[in-house]
């Protein structure tokens, strides 16, 4: 078994890494909002689900690909991938902002505490999932393949596949942009200020509603990118995938320490690799068990997650 | 909606019973009105299966009524169980106590069948299911004997036959098969593997995996298959997962054979992955699409029913035809129908001999093979 594992180590690792980066991006949707509002935005999983549909609509309906189409190449391919990525990010970003305005803002203004927005979040996620279920006739929907899944090289014995490579590189670029935004820009500073002490930030003249909207927008953009990468890698979706992926990303956020970007990063990577290795070693049926045993062990020793910080510290 | 439909079915049944007593002699002096039932999912997520089967039954009845004009008028009472055992337990009592119904095509699903059986057995309502394949319904070895005796029959072969056939089809033409089998952790998928195992020759199996039907990332299973050096991969589960799994397996560079059972045989299957990925996928199923029996038959079906035939169309027509041939012999009670069905010897739409064994299973039923070619599922003949 160990020998087999070493044989397959690098190909499992590449698969696990690209899955991990998808988790990271969704986890950011949870963690950004939590950092600012101390609230779990459970509707984020459905934002992700709708982003996967946005990608498919672009590829299938705008660029008219079918399951028997020729693969796109060269400039056209990058144009298609670029449009689909931007569209999913925009759809998800705007949807997140709308969800905040419709479902949370009024509750927050009325100081409803933390439970009412939680129920409101679950309600929104049900409405979104059911709406898509009705529109998609409860059927799984596949994305036609626009890009050939070619091998671009070998690393030790493992084939390096184009889609996994694109996911890893693009996700890293997005993360660098996100860190630059949060650390270097005025808006980013405002987000951090609200996250550290909302009342003080308000007294300094920061527009809290504006900052909250921007946070939802940024979290949504990241989750939307995850939707695009998911379709690029797995080429299918359904109204019900939000739950599964959402729980996984939420677990990743908790594992790493919710509320900070570093936590989402390491939590997502750890989860992606852990799931993949565990499925190989113990069988896929043990994947979830392994993940949660590890989660409990980590929380047992570090209750705030791997990189959890005290509430008052910076969240970037 | 559910409730409304239910009550309206019950009301219609009651009304029909009442009207029979009052008006039957006056309304159509020469023609005799006989009622049969259909039970399956007509609404909800599984509605497509039930609606397709119902269309098959109505098609057969329509041909029969046209042929026997002036002699018989057969009516079909529809019962919607949504494919759900809980729902089936609610509709079955109404059907069972409606004595006008002398035979029932269905239920479509095994779970719903088991939930309905106590009511039908109590009132001795003869049943012929086009698609309930769970082995225990007719298996004398199940606790308490075959659940369905004496009223249950089916025209579809079970997974007991499908398991070995699927293995045979998957390894056909392979000199040294190294088979890797993956199930979806469902009762259907695990059961199919259990029935397949005794049929696997020594040394031909190189591994098993069991993967939840919620899984989207198959890389671990793919790695296992590659380490095992398999050249045949069989998946016992349903088409949405099969499409994703096969895609990821092919994308990893696997070039061997891919195969699946009737859970994968759906017209939607080929829309879920690129045609090049699914090319050559081998499938088994007890059913044969009408168009593969005869294109003329399919055209006539489409003309009369206003839609293309579905997956179990042939079985639904066969099941209805058995009842109809008994009716043509003058059968008009449940008891007479039951003995007529048990003694039935005839031909199915495909031309094969059709009769039932002592447990209600179709005698000598065969599994059919299919292959995906150019983005469409093609019938390749019975598995031998």
SSE inventory with pairings:
The complex is a heterodimer of chains A (316) and B (384).
Chain A: H1 2-37, H2 44-62, H3 74-109, H4 115-135, E1 141-142, E2 151-155, E3 158-161, H5 162-184, H6 186-196, H7 198-203, H8 208-234, E4 236-237, H9 241-256, H10 261-282, H11 287-301
Antiparallel strand pairs in A: 1-4, 2-3
Helix pairs in contact in A: 1-5, 1-8, 1-9, 1-10, 2-3, 2-4, 2-8, 2-9, 3-4, 3-8, 5-6, 5-8, 6-8, 9-10, 10-11
Chain B: H1 2-27, E1 32-40, H2 47-67, E2 72-80, H3 85-97, E3 101-105, H4 110-122, E4 127-129, E5 152-154, H5 159-171, E6 179-183, H6 187-196, E7 205-210, H7 219-228, E8 232-236, H8 239-251, E9 257-260, H9 275-278, E10 282-285, H10 290-293, H11 295-305, H12 313-328, H13 334-342, E11 346-347, E12 353-354, E13 368-373, E14 376-382
Q: At the fourth CATH level, what is the homologous superfamily of the largest domain in chain B?
A: Response regulator
Largest sheet of chain A: 2 strands, antiparallel
Overall average residue pLDDT of chain A: 89
Which term fits the overall shape of chain B?
A: globular
CATH topology of chain A: ABC transporter involved in vitamin B12 uptake, BtuC
Termini distance of chain B?
Answer: 47 Å
Percentage of helical residues of chain A? over 70%
Count the helices of chain B. How many?
A: 13
Briefly, what is this?
The complex is a heterodimer of chains A (316) and B (384). Chain A is 73% helix and 4% strand.
Account of the protein in words:
The complex is a heterodimer of chains A (316) and B (384). Chain A has 316 residues and is mainly α. Chain A has one domain (2-137, 146-301): ABC transporter involved in vitamin B12 uptake, BtuC. Chain A has helices at residues 2-37, 44-62, 74-109, 115-135, 162-184, 186-196, 198-203, 208-234, 241-256, 261-282, 287-301; strands at residues 141-142, 151-155, 158-161, 236-237. In chain A, a hairpin with a 2-residue loop joins strand 2 and strand 3. In chain A, helix 1 (2-37) runs parallel beside helix 5, helix 3 (74-109) packs antiparallel against helix 8 (208-234) and helix 5 (162-184) runs antiparallel to helix 8 (208-234). Chain A is globular. The model of chain A is unreliable at 310-316 (pLDDT under 50). In chain B, the strands form 3 sheets. A 7-stranded mixed beta sheet of chain B has the order 7-6-8-9-10-13-14, with helices on both faces. Chain B has a 5-stranded parallel beta sheet with strand order 2-1-3-4-5, with helices on both faces. In chain B, strands 11-12 form a two-stranded antiparallel ribbon. Chain B has helices at 2-27, 47-67, 85-97, 110-122, 159-171, 187-196, 219-228, 239-251, 275-278, 290-293, 295-305, 313-328, 334-342; strands spanning 32-40, 72-80, 101-105, 127-129, 152-154, 179-183, 205-210, 232-236, 257-260, 282-285, 346-347, 353-354, 368-373, 376-382. Chain B is globular and about 70 Å long. The longest helix of chain B has 26 residues, at 2-27. Chain B has 384 residues and is of the alpha/beta class. Residues 1-27 of chain B have low confidence and may be disordered. Chain B folds into 2 domains: 2-157 and 293-351, 3-Layer(aba) Sandwich (Rossmann fold); 160-285 and 367-382, Rossmann fold (3-Layer(aba) Sandwich), CATH 3.40.50. The interface between A and B is medium-sized, with 37 and 33 residues.
